[in-house]
Each structure stands twice: as structure tokens, then as C-alpha cells.
Amino acid sequence: MDEMYIDFYNKLLGTYDDQFSVKGISGERVAERLSILAHIGLTEDNGSRRPGFSVLEREAKDRVIEWMYEAGLTVSEDGAGNVFGRLEGKSSDKAVIMSGSHLDTVPNGGHFDGTIGVLSALEVAQAWKETGYTPEKSYEVAIFTDEEGSRFNGGLTGSEAMVGDTDMEKTLLRKDYDDRLFEEVIQDVGLSVRGYGEAGRDLDEIETFVEVHIEQGKKLEKAGLPCGIVTGIAGPYWLKVTFEGLAGHAGNTPMDDRKDALVAAGEFIQKISTLPRKINDTAVATVGNIQVKPNGTNVIPGEVILFVDIRDIQFDSRTELVEKIIATGKKIQKRTGVNFIHQNVHDVAPVPIAEEYQEKLAQSMNRLGIKPSYLSSGAGHDAMIIGRHIPSAMLFVKSKEGISHNPKEWSDLSDCVQTIHVLKDYIERLQVV
Predict the structure, then answer these.
(1) Where, in this chain's numbering, is Zn(2+) 1 bound (predicted)?
(2) For residue range 125-156, what is the model confidence (pLDDT) as tens digits?
């Protein structure tokens, strides 16, 4: 047996409290499956590399499909490569409960992001088989294609296809990191443009969706809690900002006679870093991409282009933050004479989680002796796309040091399994008609 597999498996079980392997849920089975998937697309740094629409993502899906059959599920796949394992309920005419996530990764990511959501959903079905439980409503375990978007620099592709949000005209123009068009790439894994365009599903068939995901932050770790309830998923709004000043000689231009675009941009960056906390605790703003022109050591910067990533879980408060940021730029322009130009280049609506579903998750946590904790998601997830159309909920699993998209990404098995118990209890409570 592979050494990495053994090391990862033993590390998972090394701190596991087997008191949580009850009611048909097996921590050892979860550890084994996490370890098997971790080995698919393993990098030299012991990370994961399974790009969307790759043969490695396909291999991971095929392994999970085998486990779906073991759990007694019937399996189907749509034209976007999304996989659904279905357990027929007693009342098969009722809308289904769906849970799942994705198996693709960033280029050198961790072994929990996305994967734990798929395996958690599957473990619920496996536990029901072990205990002989049949739900009233049908249940589906979902694997969504290309959530991370590392291949085409734009993710959530599979869930968008399922809900019918794909802009096929733009999608067909996308090129991947090898400069290959979308149509050519998806053929590698047996998909076609026609099938992809027909992947949309009748959403009336789905009552609700719930996704388990690692937190990708430190709040649960600081609180000493295994899992938490997501209150909303922040939608990103990107501003492209240009400061137009006047380039000049660094030695011959007096300090009081300059239109330095970089000085104006620096003031702008510093000031907007203070604005989110004036809105609420969930709003954030980040400048992570900046270009200086002409970018010479002895030249006063004449132009600076930067991008501001603005997020919040509520649309109104995010809009307020955007307006404050733009107003800040205009004030700097008026005072310095450096032109401030702004343009929206990306806008994804936030998705708040309905209080009804938060409360049901809290009830399940209380039943299991876990203190309910509430936190927002600053990152996008399949639940964000699905949540625009179908009532959705999310559970976060505690992340060690908040590390994510990194080979050091880690969630203790005990925390993962406790989260699965919450998911199972929650889904069972949704069976009450």
C-alpha cells in the first residue's frame, strides 16, 4: 500500500475519537475514502491537483460512483459531468433533498476542500443503509464539476449548468491554461457542447440543498467548536480602478508640483481598508492586484490600475460599501487632481441563508450536544449558485489555522464526523411532512 496513503490515513485516525462512529456513521470509512481521493492527483508537496474537466477529476468521480453503488444509490450524470447518486424515498413523488459539493481542486490544494462535502453527503446515505433507514423524501448526493475554476479562471461551472445559469456564448470562448478552447477540453472526459447546454434540471424536483465545507477560516478553531452554521455566502463585486496622474522625472519635479498616481492610489487603498468595519462585521474589501505605469525607478508613476474585491452576505450593505469606496476615490481626485476612473468588472449577488434553515441546523446541533455557532462565508460555493434558485444551507467544518487551498489544509476527523452527524440529523428532520 502507498506510503502517502498510509500516512494520511493514520494521521486522520490518530486523533479520532471513535465514540462518534455510531448510528451507521463510520469514521474509519470516511478516513479511508479521504485517503483514497487524496492520492488521486497527488502533487510533489503532498497536495491535490485535480483540475475541472481533467482525467484526474474524472477518476475521483468514478471512485465515488463506486461508493454510491455500495450505499445502494442509483447513479446518473448530466451533460456537464455533474454526478447524482439517488436514494428513492417512500414518497418518491415529493421533491428531493440534495447534498454534496465538488472533487476538483486548485493547482496545489488540500485534501478536504470540496471532498469532505461529497463524502459527508455520501456517508449519510451509507449510514442509512447500515441501519436500514429509508427516508420519506428521496435523497441525492451530488458531485458538481469544476467548482474551483482553476482550468478556465472561472469556477462554479457544474452547478451553474444544473440551475441553467450558464452563458454558453461566453463559455465557448474560454481557453484553459494550455490555450485550449472549452469545447476541446470537455471532450477529454466524454462531454459535448450540446450535452452541456442541456444539463439544466427541473428545479421544482429539488426541495432544498445543503453543503458541508471546510471553514477556510479560524473562527471555529478559536471557539473550540467542530462545526458551525453559515448565515450567508458573500458575493464578490470587483471594481477596476484607474488613477491617471502625470508621469515625470523623479529628480526634476518638485514634490509640490506632482500628480503622482501611485500616491493617490496608496491613499485610496489605505482608506478603503477602514471602510468595511463601518458597515458591519461581514463586509470586506481587498486590493490584491495592482499595476503601476511606467513602473520605472526614476519616473513618477503616471497611471495605476488596481482591482478592489468587495464582498458581503447582504446585497444592501455590499452596495453601501461600494458607494463609500467610490466616494473615497472621488474625494482623492478632487484634492489631488489625479483622475479617478472606476468600472464594475464582476458582480455575483450575495446569497443569505434563510433563518428557517439556520434554525433547523441549530436544533440538530443542540440535539447532538454541539453549541450552535454562526459565521458567514467569504468564499463562493456551489451552494451560492444553487441558493439563487433553491432554498440552501451550509455547514462549515473547523479548519486547522484556517489554512485552505494549500497542502497543509487540515480538518480533524472527529470534527468531520461530528459534522456528518449534524448533517444526517438535519436531513432526517426535513423528512417530516
Answers:
(1) 102, 113, 213
(2) 999 999 999 999 999 999 999 998 888 877 78
Q: pTM of the full predicted structure?
A: 0.85
DSSP H or E segment with residue 333: helix 315-336
Task: Evaluate whether 3-234+350-429 and 235-347 have a shared fold.
Answer: no
Residue positions in the annotated binding site for Zn(2+)?
102, 113, 148, 213, 405
Domain ranges for the chain: 3-234+350-429, 235-347
**Which CATH number does 3-234+350-429 carry?**
3.40.630.10
Three cell numbers at 205?
Answer: 424536483
CB proximity list for 391: less than 8 A, separation 6 or greater: 207, 208, 209, 354, 356, 357
Pairing of strands 83-87, 74-77: antiparallel
CB atoms within 10 A of CB 315: 14
320 Cβ neighbours under 8 A, 6+ residues apart: 279
Strand-pair category, 206-214 with 392-397: parallel
Maximum distance among all Cα pairs of the chain, rounded to whole angstroms:
83
pLDDT of 163-188, one tens digit each? 999 888 888 988 888 999 999 999 99
Main-chain phi, psi angles of 96, to 5 degrees: -85, 155
Predicted confidence (pLDDT) per residue in 304-343, tens digit: 999 999 999 889 999 999 999 999 999 999 999 999 999 9
Name the architecture of domain 235-347.
Answer: 2-Layer Sandwich (3.30)
Cα–Cα distance for residue pair 102/117, rounded to 1 Å: 7
Taken in order 199, 200, 202, 208, the sign of the CA dihedral is positive
pLDDT at 1 exceeding the cut of 60: no
Q: Which residues are annotated as a binding site?
A: 102, 113, 148, 213, 405
C-beta separation of 112 from 103 below 8 A: no
